[in-house]
Every structure is written in structure tokens, then in C-alpha cells.
């Protein structure tokens, strides 16, 4: 499920026209100062993803290649869909997509490659999705600060924090939100 | 707990906040004993740093006693520690290159957007210094939560008073790195704009690093007197033509290295739409001089410019021609505090560096607002305010 490359060498997600047909494309690269094997293994267990993806409430395995994702949508709603892994190459790539007929149509790939000179691993996530309610839905999502592009960026940063620092940075002084 | 709280431009008050808790495994909680007001806190006080919010606790120069530790902290309850103002994870590419103030992982992900827009890359976390750098509650408080407490804090050996080590948190390493960035060579003249705490420590550091001549430039007579204590020569820019004086004091060559320890409020800088986006009011510093521009004109051909002074936005009328045509090197940045603390602590222990002469006033934390006002308004006499918290 490789995304089509644009004419220059920049990835599709960096193009001004970040669409592929009906699908919006978001993505981001981040360099993480940890070995490829470690990062791949962490990501391959989808149950780990909610630890750094704030929009995901939980991911439960429903079969060898399938899992049920519960996502926090704008306005306090929950959306669930079932996803299947469509491609895995050990320590290099994991691809998944929502099963046909899901409430959210999305597909994604995360790839892992060695950064130069022992600088760790370049992790690239590419997500395609059909915006709920098209452009209007995307606008609504923006209003709730849950714009998928921003979310993807934040999530990869939190992944990096968790992998490098072992914890996710917060400026909060109290555990409970009411106290802050 | 009680803590000095920012409410708006020139409006800080000591308010009551909930005590901090351990949130992450590498955290520690300190009971603050001493905490200083920094010259860069005055930029917050004047409302010229973007990204402040009413209710923010200020303070990034502090030390205290460890009262609680997370499961992965290397500190122990009861230890006295000084805490670097920059928050650094110790594990990322930058931390491992000892570029601690460029840490990738200490600024919470959602807080990184603003500095990414403003500067092209996200800044690291800093205690009590606006939401651009994480919005971390600062140390001008009775208690403070210290993230990554296994990397930053330095344990104070027994028998050393707070006043002798407190400035390891910021201004001493900042002055030291400023001098290091000036890449001083034998025979060099180093000119330092600003005889505030960082400027004075830069003077002291430049002397230790073997400068032939250090020239301190300011207009507060008392501060210039302090610079003289370390053997610096002085120029009072209120009375003297600085550029002419510098040429005459260097045999017509100009200083080999110059240090701008003044920062943004001497210059005034232009505001653009990006800054408006983060909803900050930034006003030009009108008639407060032209330290950095002047420094660029003063420095000799092929010379070095070191900028420890804080800048937050855009500067116009930048003499880029002077830089290019003279072949000038410029080094700057928030201080990589953790890189310097151990060496500087040793120098303090061995009596090579003393910092206590800088402190002009001690006040209880409850009087912090008064401390800000005096430090801001009476710069000649109020050279450094240390707040005692517990």
C-alpha cells in the first residue's frame, strides 16, 4: 500500500494537494534514537498504540490479523471500527486498513528505516482517510482541535518521547484534571 | 502551596496553588529553599515573550530539598539539589551531543506547535518560561515538580550554602557558555554589552579563559563597579561613544570577540503575523539602545559574536552586510546547563569562582512581587534578588 510519489522527491503528504481521490493524506517522519527492532516490536503490538495516540481509547485484538479500534471522535463521541493488517515486513513496515463497510474509512502504513551514522531509526507514518462528512466533517474536526494532521504529528512525537525518554512529557502538576 | 504567579504585563502576585504531585516515573518533587529572579523573568514581566497565560507560575533559577521521587528518579529524599532551567531528557540525539537546551522530548507534544511555527523547530521545555517552552510551573514556589530528575539536578555537597551554588541553575553556566562561544584566544579583547548578572559572569568567565582585556559596557555605575572587581575595563555608554572607545582601547583593531548579554529589550523587534497567531503583545523596546547591532559593528574583521541575551521574535535592520563583509562568526542559544554544572561546581568548591557578591537582596517568597518591581525599576542597586521559600 505504498503511497504514490509526487514528481519531486518529497512525499505525497508534503504536497500542497494532499489528497488522493476521496482520501485525505496525512503523515510525518520522525527520527527516534532507538534501534529499528525495538520500535517495530512495540508498534506491531497494536494494544500499545493507545499509550501515545490520545485519540484512541483502546485497540483490542479480534483475530490474528484483526483488531477492534475505539476512537474518541469530536464532541465526546466514540467511533469503533475493525481493522486488518494488510502487510507486514519484519522490522521494516506494517500496513493496515479499516474493513470495508466501517464507519471510518482509513488505511495506514508505518515504516522503519535506519537513520544515517547510528542516529537511530526514521519512522514514517502515512495515513489515508475519508474525512467524516467530507470537507464539512474535516472543518468540524478542526474546530475541536482534533485535526488528523495535527494529531498524527503529536502522536509521533509522543511515540518518540515514550521510546527515547521512557515517558511522555507533561507540564501538568496534578494527576487529576480537576486539580490543575 | 504559595507561588509567584503571572497575571499580565507588570502584574505578578504570590497566589495559592495545589501542591505538585509525581506524574511520571522520572519526576521528583522539591521543597524549594532558594529561588532567584532572573533578568529574563523581566522579559516575561514586561510581556514581551509570547505564549504566557494568566496563572502561570514563574521561576527557573531554583534549588531545594528532594521530598518525593518517582520510581525512575536517581535522587533520594533529603538530598539538596540545584536544578537547571532547561528540562532535558538525556536520551535524544541532542541531549547525547550535550546540546541539552535543544532536547526533543521535554516540551509536551501539543505545546510544540507554537515554537515550530515561530522558529521552524520546537523548543525544549523550560521551567516557568511561557507555553512556547512547555508551560511548566516554575520554581518561585514552595514546591516544584522536576521532570527527568535523573538528568538535570546536581546534588549539592554538604556544607555549601544555597547562595554559593544557586546560580548553577542558569546565570553562571549562561555567562560561562557565552564566554566559551566567544572562542577566546591569547591576546584577545572581549567586549561585553550589559553588566547584568549574565554579563558580569561572562566577564568573570572570559578573564578565567585567558582574555587579555575584557571591556564591560553598561550605564549603571554600580554594575560597572562590579565588573571592575574582576579586572574588567568599563565603558559607560551614557557618557562615552562606544564604537570610538572600543577602537581606541584596542589599538584601532576592534574587539576580537563581543558578547551581547542584553537581549531583546534593548533593541525592540518587529512583530509579524506569526506572533499575532500566538496572541502575544510584543512591543518594541523603543530607545533602549542597539546593543547587538552595535556589537556587530564593533567586532573586528573575522571576529566572533556570542549572544546569550534572550530574543524571542524578529529583529529588523540587521547589519547583515557587516557580518558578511567582515566574515563574522555568531554563536548563540539557550544554555546547555547540564553540560557545565559539574565543572562549575568544582570551580566553586575550589574557590576559583565565587558568585555570592552578585546578590544584592534576599526577600521572602511572599514579597516576590516587590522583588520584581525593584529589580525592574532600580537596576543599579538591585543586581540580584534571591527569594527564600522554605
TrEMBL record, chain A:
Residues 9-22 have a biased composition (Basic and acidic residues). InterPro entries: ORF3, Polyketide_cyclase/dehydratase, START-like_dom_sf. Pfam families: Polyketide_cyc2. Residues 1-22 are annotated as: Disordered. PANTHER family: POLYKETIDE CYCLASE/DEHYDRASE AND LIPID TRANSPORT SUPERFAMILY PROTEIN, POLYKETIDE CYCLASE_DEHYDRASE AND LIPID TRANSPORT SUPERFAMILY PROTEIN. This is SRPBCC family protein.
From TrEMBL, chain B:
PROSITE patterns: ADH_ZINC (PS00059). Keywords: Metal-binding, Oxidoreductase, Zinc. Gene3D superfamilies: Medium-chain alcohol dehydrogenases, catalytic domain (3.90.180.10), NAD(P)-binding Rossmann-like Domain (3.40.50.720). It holds the Pfam family ADH_N. It comes from the Bacteria. InterPro entries: ADH-like_C, ADH-like_N, ADH_Zn_CS, GroES-like_sf, NAD(P)-bd_dom_sf. One of its GO terms (molecular function) is oxidoreductase activity. Residues 197-277 form the Alcohol dehydrogenase-like C-terminal domain. Residues 25-153 form the Alcohol dehydrogenase-like N-terminal domain. Its cofactor is Zn(2+). The keyword Zinc applies. Belongs to the zinc-containing alcohol dehydrogenase family. This is Glutathione-dependent formaldehyde dehydrogenase. It comes from Devosia oryzisoli.
